[in-house]
């Protein structure tokens, strides 16, 4: 009698242990996988992310149920059937057909519960509900993002910006994904699961943001050296704000007036050879497309694909030694000013370039 | 064989010491070589992992540069899969299969030696990349076009390609060998449905190997041609689709996952019955589920590609096939539990590891089912959630089972027991360390942390879990260290084991520990699924008495003699591969490549004309 009670206690203890683990996990969910974290998938802020989160909860529920059941039985067995000194051989049971058929069918039922919503969600999210809505082309580059909008004034023209995507809140936005070099993956955890950007294999996706906010995104497919530093921001704003932003982006760059900035432009479009890779709308020289379009760079909150705040000291640090800010970046490896000691930028050149970039509002 | 163009040195007879190991064709010695090499590579891969965990323990860390970090995770994955888990499985195949089926060696002993030496050549080749200009850095599944010349001009990827090709040769040779051995060399009476489950899983794994490796071989040849000779299989600029590589890689890669886990399941299916003193519950179902897993492993590869853009139809189909594979896997878990039910469970170290395996494989299996839901997986793909999943399956699964197998069969291999106290310490350190390291990664993934990033900002909210994970890694490392100490100590002065320390059920426990070179003095006749147990408990005379002299027979047993040629042909492959790597840019390297390949060719030629035994050594064992 005493023995049975002790076994029972042990078993209950084990079950309590498992349950507390699960509970701990659940609390952990709330406290640590916190929705206020900038890339938490638990703070779904759009229909795509929300459907994926709902599916996740559903499957997690099924998995947690299976886990608790099976592990409870496992622990019960381990505690209940431990060998004691002097135990005789247990009965040599070779199997039980009925039981085995039972536990083959049971998982099938559980899996059907998971499979049905999976398939419906896959199809729901596959095609944009509004194919005619605003469409943004996103191009992945090692290690930055190019965003191409339809030009507000000219349907045949595109408007190019980088690393900071603006979208109107509460509207479906269609996205075309492509890559010019290696595979990247476009991921804004709070708005939608990722879709890969594969060279020669264009993909599409759609997103919609519920509320105005700045959503963080990051490349999710390993894409070489500083994959970790390929980040971006999505600014979801009211339609009016969005239209204003788009209109302003469509303007050519301001012509600098401050003498230092004027000098900076001369370097940019001259010996600095920045023009070879960067476009500044309004300039006839700066038409390069290898690097980010810098027409309105000062309006962006961050530089280097979302890694440093866009301010004077950071711009200076970036231009002085880009490799220490973003190791192995293409500007550092390819630009003559960083490779050819004859052409390297002087302290004064950098000041001028910073002033010019700050004027690109 | 009348005349030979080249004079051959005679076959070695009874070499001793190092020379004995270099020329051995004894499956047991080869098994030990595989095991020791795999353990060393496991420590190497572990060291790489520790570097990564140290780098990620705090945000914005600069312990290693991004390029070194990329090399670390590429090498960690490649090393653990191809140089640690697979060869550790091969160690068990080698040591145990002949013992379990009542044979004196494998079907092709020299080919077996060749498999090992070629595996070692691949391991040396891959690892040497660290010291020869940088290790591969494109991830263990080497997605094109990142592996192309344009984005990866160094030799790292070349090392990766050539060493995987060499390892492929080793695996294919071994797989054919084990299929032939298992099919042809079973003791009389051991029908297929009387075979131990470990042998069954080895058979299935071997079939997976011979079907899966040709696919990766073709993919690697194409990539090699791109890099060496300027072809365009994977060059997007010339119109290639990088998705082709992904299909080829994962058609190999997913069966590969089962190549890593089926032997583990086989080990658990041996350990659980022994330590519960019950036969395996539902033997036919265990066999069948293994076969089904092996078969269905070919239908799920695109679940690695749910975000590639294959479309909703493909994603749905692969989601459902992936879920379906959970059924035979679940059945195995339930049958192990059925075996333990009403058993007499002895919680010695091998059993602890086996239960730990079941527990963590349940978690890994369930997170696998979560991944199978393609729509929800769009959030988890390429995040730390996947990293958590693979480590629950491959560490919590494969490695825990292999550890269980080492504790279980170590007495058979060395004649000595492993220390039980250190074993329990080892288990708990690894168990706690493993869960502390990998469980938080689930949270990190759901919190938006992509895998393969060398750094992160403090504002992302990932600090706590990363710090905890890195702390867990230290426990894990300590656990592995205890394991290593236990292995070395026990091999030297562990307690004497005797032939049958665990009250075993299968044939290997019926012969002395360590087994004599000829294994069985008399080949046993098998009447039962658990032949040795049946003999001990029911008096069914299946096998000669343990430690029995076999007296008069002993010296007339025919055993293959050692040979130099397997080693030499593998050395030739290694030299050839190093030469080939630089052959397109250097004439010297080209000639080195030619010399290497010639050594292999001559060795194979000489090997095939080698007399079975030297005349004067013909009747020796």
Q: Beta fraction of the residues of chain B?
A: under 5%
Give Rg of chain A in angstroms: 29 Å
How many independent structural domains of chain A?
3
Biggest sheet strand line-up of chain A: 3-2-1-5-8
* Gross morphology of chain B: globular
Q: What is the residue-averaged pLDDT of chain B?
A: 92
Please report the distance between the alpha carbons of the first and last residues of chain B.
25 Å
Going by helix content, strand content and strand pairing, the class of chain B is mainly alpha
Largest interface chains and counts? A-B, 90 and 92 residues
Mean pLDDT of chain A: 91
Order of helices and strands of chain A: HHHEEEEEEEEEEHHEEHHHHH
* Amino- and carboxy-terminal Cα gap of chain A: 84 Å
Write up what this structure looks like.
The complex is a heterodimer of chains A (361) and B (621). Chain A is an alpha+beta fold. Chain A has 3 domains: 2-84 and 98-126, Helix Hairpins (Orthogonal Bundle); 134-249, Cupredoxins -  blue copper proteins (Immunoglobulin-like, Sandwich); 259-358, Cupredoxins -  blue copper proteins (Immunoglobulin-like, Sandwich), CATH 2.60.40. Chain A has 10 helices and 12 strands. Chain A has helices at residues 2-31, 47-80, 97-126, 239-250, 259-268, 312-320, 322-325, 330-334, 336-339, 347-359, and strands at residues 135-141, 144-150, 158-162, 164-168, 173-179, 184-188, 192-197, 203-207, 213-218, 231-237, 302-303, 308-309. Chain A has a 5-stranded mixed sheet with strand order 3-2-1-5-8. In chain A, a hairpin with a 7-residue loop joins β2 and β3 (158-162). Chain A is elongated, with a radius of gyration of 29 Å. The termini of chain A are far apart. The mean pLDDT of chain A is 91. In chain B, 64% of the residues lie in helices and 0% in strands. Residues 545-552 and 617-621 of chain B have low confidence and may be disordered. In chain B, α13 (420-446) packs antiparallel against α14 (463-493). With 621 residues, chain B is mostly helical. Chain B has 2 domains: 28-46 and 64-343, Up-down Bundle (Cytochrome C Oxidase, Chain A), CATH 1.20.210.10; 353-502. Chains A and B meet through α2, α3 and β7 of A and α3, α8, α9, α10 and α11 of B.
């Amino acid at each position: 009698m005493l023995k049975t009670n002790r076994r029972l206690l042990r078993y209950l203890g084990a079950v309590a242990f498992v349950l507390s683990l699960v509970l701990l996990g659940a609390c952990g969910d709330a406290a640590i996988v916190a929705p206020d974290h900038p890339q938490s998938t638990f703070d779904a802020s759009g229909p795509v992310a929300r459907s994926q989160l709902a599916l996740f909860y559903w499957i997690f529920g099924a998995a947690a149920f299976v886990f608790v059941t099976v592990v409870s039985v496992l622990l019960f067995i381990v505690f209940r059937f431990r060998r004691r000194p002097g135990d005789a051989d247990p009965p040599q049971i070779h199997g039980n057909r009925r039981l085995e058929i039972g536990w083959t069918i049971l998982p099938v039922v559980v899996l059907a519960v998971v499979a049905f919503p999976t398939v419906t969600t896959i199809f729901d999210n596959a095609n944009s509900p509004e194919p005619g809505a605003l469409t943004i082309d996103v191009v992945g580059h090692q290690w930055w993002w190019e965003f191409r909008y339809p030009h507000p004034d000219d349907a045949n023209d595109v408007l190019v910006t980088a690393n900071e995507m603006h979208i109107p809140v509460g509207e479906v936005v269609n996205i075309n994904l492509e890559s010019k070099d290696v595979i990247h993956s476009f991921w804004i955890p709070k708005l939608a699961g990722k879709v890969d950007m594969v060279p020669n294999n264009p993909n599409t996706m759609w997103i919609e943001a519920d509320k105005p906010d700045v959503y963080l995104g990051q490349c999710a497919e390993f894409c070489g050296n500083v994959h970790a530093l390929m980040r971006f921001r999505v600014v979801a704003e009211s339609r009016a704000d969005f239209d204003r932003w788009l209109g302003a982006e469509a303007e050519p760059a301001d012509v600098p007036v401050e003498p230092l900035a004027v000098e900076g432009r001369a370097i940019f479009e001259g010996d600095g050879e920045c023009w070879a890779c960067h476009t500044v709308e309004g300039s006839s020289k700066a038409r390069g497309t290898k690097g980010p379009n810098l027409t309105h760079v000062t309006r962006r909150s961050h530089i280097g694909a979302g890694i440093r705040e866009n301010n004077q000291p950071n711009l200076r640090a970036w231009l002085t030694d880009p490799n220490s800010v973003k190791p192995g970046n293409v500007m550092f490896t390819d630009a003559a000013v960083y490779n050819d000691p004859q052409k390297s930028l002087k302290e004064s050149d950098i000041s001028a370039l910073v002033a010019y970039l700050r004027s690109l509002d | 064989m009348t005349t030979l163009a080249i004079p051959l040195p005679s076959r070695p007879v009874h070499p001793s010491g190092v020379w004995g190991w270099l020329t051995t064709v004894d499956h047991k010695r080869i098994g030990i070589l595989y095991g020791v090499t795999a353990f060393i590579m496991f420590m190497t891969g572990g060291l790489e992992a520790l570097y990564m965990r140290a780098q990620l323990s705090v945000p914005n860390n600069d312990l290693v540069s991004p390029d070194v970090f990329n090399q670390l995770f590429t090498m960690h994955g490649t090393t653990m899969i191809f140089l640690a888990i697979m060869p550790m499985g091969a160690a068990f195949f080698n040591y145990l299969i002949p013992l379990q089926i009542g044979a004196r060696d494998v079907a092709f002993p020299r080919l077996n030696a060749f498999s090992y030496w070629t595996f070692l050549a691949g391991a040396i080749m891959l690892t040497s990349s660290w010291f020869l200009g940088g290790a591969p850095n494109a991830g263990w599944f080497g997605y094109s076009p990142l592996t192309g010349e344009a984005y990866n001009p160094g030799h790292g990827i070349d090392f990766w390609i050539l060493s995987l090709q060499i390892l492929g040769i080793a695996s294919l040779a071994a797989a054919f060998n084990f299929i032939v051995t298992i099919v042809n060399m079973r003791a009389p009476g051991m029908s297929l449905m009387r075979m131990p489950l470990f042998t069954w899983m080895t058979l299935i794994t071997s079939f997976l190997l011979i079907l899966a490796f040709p696919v990766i071989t073709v993919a690697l040849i194409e990539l090699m041609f791109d890099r060496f000779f300027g072809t365009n299989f994977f060059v997007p600029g010339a119109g290639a689709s990088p998705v082709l590589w992904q299909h080829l890689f994962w058609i190999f890669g997913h069966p590969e996952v089962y190549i890593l886990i089926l032997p583990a399941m086989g080990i658990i299916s041996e350990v659980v019955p022994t330590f519960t003193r019950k036969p395996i519950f539902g033997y036919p179902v265990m066999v069948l589920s293994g076969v089904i897993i092996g078969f269905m492993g070919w239908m799920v590869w695109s679940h690695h590609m749910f975000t590639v853009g294959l479309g909703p139809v493909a994603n749905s189909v692969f989601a459902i096939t992936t879920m379906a594979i959970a059924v035979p896997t679940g059945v195995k878990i339930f049958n192990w539990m059925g075996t333990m039910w009403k058993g007499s469970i002895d919680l010695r170290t091998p059993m602890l590891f086996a239960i730990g395996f079941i527990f963590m494989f349940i978690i890994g299996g369930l997170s696998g089912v979560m991944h199978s839901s393609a729509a929800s997986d769009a959030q988890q793909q390429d995040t730390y959630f996947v990293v958590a999943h693979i480590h629950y399956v491959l560490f919590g699964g494969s490695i825990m089972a292999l550890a269980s197998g080492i504790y279980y069969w170590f007495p058979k291999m060395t004649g000595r027991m492993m220390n039980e106290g250190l074993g329990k310490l080892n288990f708990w350190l690894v168990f706690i360390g493993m869960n502390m390291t990998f469980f938080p990664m689930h949270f990190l993934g759901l919190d938006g942390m992509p895998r393969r990033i060398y750094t992160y900002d403090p504002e992302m909210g990932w600090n706590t879990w990363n710090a905890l994970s890195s702390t867990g890694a230290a426990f894990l490392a300590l656990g592995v260290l205890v394991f290593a100490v236990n292995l070395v100590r026990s091999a030297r002065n562990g307690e004497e084991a005797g032939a049958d320390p665990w009250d075993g059920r299968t044939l290997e426990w019926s012969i002395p520990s360590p087994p004599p070179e000829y294994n069985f003095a008399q080949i046993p006749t098998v009447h039962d699924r658990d032949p040795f147990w049946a003999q001990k408990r029911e008096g069914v005379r299946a096998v000669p008495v343990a430690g029995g002299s076999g007296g008069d027979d002993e010296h007339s047993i025919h055993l293959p003699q050692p040979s130099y040629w397997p080693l030499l042909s593998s050395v030739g492959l290694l030299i050839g591969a190093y030469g080939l790597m630089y052959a397109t840019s250097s004439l010297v390297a080209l000639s080195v490549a030619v010399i290497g390949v010639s050594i292999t060719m001559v060795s194979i030629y000489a090997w095939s004309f080698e007399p079975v035994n030297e005349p004067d050594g013909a009747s020796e064992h």
